[in-house]
Write a structure and sequence with these properties.
Helix content is 25%, strand content 22%. The protein has 291 residues and is α/β, with parallel strands linked by helices. The chain has a single domain, classed as Metallo-beta-lactamase, Chain A.
Length: 291
Amino acid sequence: MPAPMFQPQVQGFFDPVTCTVTYVVHEGAGSACAIIDSVLDYDPKSGRTHHTSADRVIDFVRQHQLQVVWVLETHAHADHLSAAAYLKAQLGGRTAIGAHITAVQKVFKKLLHLEPGLKVDGSQFDHLLQAGETMAVGRVMGTVLSVPGHTPACVAYQFGDAVFVGDTLFMPDVGTARCDFPGGDAKALYASVQQLLSLPADTRLFMCHDYPPNDRPVAFQTTVAEQRAHNIHVHDGVTETEFVAMRTQRDAGLEMPVLIWPAVQVNIRAGDMPPAEANGLSYLKIPVNAV
């Protein structure tokens, strides 16, 4: 007799400053859990960090007596700093990201002229995940899906009937992610979206962000069926050619994310700051007239 499939419980935490959603995936009180796409609060005016967003997650984990086994990233985010290192220090667990993070590290090490000692082999993370790899969160089994396009290293995580899509998709009335960052590719994103939308119609899809139009309430859960019927960029019938043309034109008019430079420097290090300099302080670099 086959073993029963345990469907995950999902708790989302929305950060209104960066419009990012952090998820805790678990089986119930006292079970193992995974944390996906955490947020380290950062003030770009002062350069100070704080842990309000991450502490909300910590409080939930402790209140429900959960045991963290994974601290996961869907990609090296350009719009917020990761709290992975802080969460690991407070709660334990192993940090992980898609194996192609090494390509992102190489690009940004060169672009930002980062310290020579920065390794570009992904070793800042406890584990690099391959497409198709499985992971256990208690009795809930997860599978890694490769979904490049927004970045070359994007992955999604499928736990039972729940898929955490990162920046590949947004809510149907927002559309899809930009593809103009280094290594981005609109054709690849289209293929990644089709992979996700080929899953069963009632599959739950959890977004990494929400940017609500027309003053609608924040929302970050939808289904494959809803995306196929209503996504403004990739609903059923939209061809690859049409999508690439739309995405290319749209991306050409987008501003860079406010936190892109501090975010990538921290996020390619699994949430750690750059090494302190001789005066004991860490510094984040901003390239001038480079992009």
